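Suppose a colleague, Dr. K., hands you the sequence of a protein chain of 362 amino acids and asks what its three-dimensional shape might be. Before reaching for any lab equipment, you can write down a predicted structure in token form. Begin with the sequence itself:
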Amino acid sequence: MLHGTRYLPVLDAVLFLSFSSLFFSSVPACSPSIYRAVSAFNPAEDTASPDYSLLENWAAHPDKQDPSDSIPEPLQATSITDTAVDVFFLHPTTLTSASSPEWNADIHDAALNARTDASTIRFQASVFNECRVFAPRYRQAHLRAYFTNDSASSRRAFDVAYGDLRAAFQYYLDHYNHGRPIIIASHSQGTTHAKRLLKEFFENQPLRGRLVAAYVIGMPIATTWFSELPACRDSAATGCIIDWRTFKYGYVPPYVTAEKSLSIVVNPLTWTTTDEYAPRSLNKGGILTHFSKLVPGVADAEIHGGILWTHRPHFPGSIFFRTKTYHIGDINLYYLNIRENIRTRVRSFEASAPAASAHPPS
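The predicted structure, expressed as tokens, is then:
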């Protein structure tokens, strides 16, 4: 039996691939070798905690040029910059090699970092780059931690990863934030940790007053997980949670059926939590096979229970796209809608916030 199947981040295994190969090739099935037995988690083998005073330990940071700064060519003329708002981005799993015996990544692994930067930092974190983007490198848990029968080692691996992100966020608060409003953003494994971060730092805490919104996407977050942070119910709501998991229209994975709690789902085309169908005409553009090419009308959206349904995405060659799980495209299928919604929520937050907190010193 696979451990933690209700958090199944299957397509993280191909996040390091280009979006071209993703959308024009069949997505590889999860190989059992990824979940093969490995040595139990051994604290003595754990690497040192990252030093977040070093820019090299940030995949994205305002004080250096990095892939999160990338802007798709069709959006460059209209892009704006708002240095009064910060985004703290928690990236998904890129440690996926079946031959890797470690439970957690080495943040000094140059090949892994390059893979992370070229995929999730460029294709996902960039959607938030009209604000200041901070994305820490962290000792992410290996993909197998979601599936192994060794639940004790899995928990330790996730705790190591969360410990790094918690330390990075605290360092960010102490040294970089200076009272700015904050957006928490994440995908997949990043969301596994982001919901813990939100519960610890924001729920029933003074910091909640600085939360513009949390775009924590790609993993189930039960509607009962937070007692104070609600789901965002319209396009301008602030201090709230946004999540969805994308699947082919009509498909409900068995692990979703087995979930005991309904998950938060916000429709990324209407920004509501209703089951109203949103046609492709509302989709202003996705970023898929080529980062600098915007694909309008690529996907529709409809909430079904605890997941988001879309018909097969529309792009050149999509007739060959057979997968029913669109996890890897959760953000990119709705790229421009997300980018514009960030502007809307920031304006809404600033309109309701005291002037001093809406525009803190740089």
